[in-house]
Amino acid sequence: MVVEEEQQHPFETVRGRLVSARVTFLGQLAKFNKDELAALFGKGTLSPLQIAYHLYMIEGLTLVQLRLVQAEENPLLEISEIEEQPTQASATPDSSTTLDAVMAGMAAQREELFSWLSTLPSEAWTRPFRHPRWGQLKFHQLVQSLIEHDQHHAQQLACLKK
Fold first, then answer.
1. Rg of the Cα trace of the chain?
2. What is the dihedral angle through the alpha carbons of 94, 98, 104, 107, rounded to the nearest 10 degrees?
3. What average pLDDT values come out for the chain (162 residues) when binned by 10 residues?
4. CA-to-CA distance for 132 and 76, rounded, in angstroms?
5. CA distances (Å), 57 to each of 30, 32, 91, 106, 161, in order?
6. Where is the DinB-like domain positioned along the sequence (predicted)?
7. Could you give the 3-state DSSP secondary structure of residue 75?
8. Superfamily of domain 10-161
């Protein structure tokens, strides 16, 4: 008798990687003291707080794009200004923005993302979309980009701290 292996829901396979990448980013961010959080470590660089804010902003934009992929048939996603040029101008939080505020926003956004992703049926993870830079992709690849984005900025923070 052959027992069929139960397929794990796509959300369950990606959830751990999303958590791990974010924990890695937060671990790198925690290495900066209060004064270093707002410091620029070289010409043309972002401060650790600006990097965290950028990550927060991109996750919000990506959530909008993920919902669009589920709502429309093979949509062409737009690239926002903050995605196109993550410079100081587009990644600068309001002067009153604190690390606590950014962290709270990141946590709330991630909770919203997880809550929504967990409700999607397995077939939703293969929905197609078009990206102006990357071409034809699937929904799960856009989710994967969140993991890669966290990992990229965790590495960026590690380089700043050296």
1. 17
2. 80
3. 69 96 98 93 88 92 95 91 54 78 96 98 97 94 96 96 86
4. 7
5. 19, 21, 8, 9, 23
6. 20-157
7. coil
8. dinb family like domain (1.20.120.450)
Q: CA neighbours within 13 Å on the CB side: how many for 38?
A: 9
Fill in the DSSP letter of residue 85.
-
Distance CA 158, CA 106 (A): 20
Amino acid 53 reads Y
Q: How far apart are CA 124 and CA 98, in angstroms?
A: 36
The residue type of 137 is L
What is the model's pTM?
Answer: 0.88
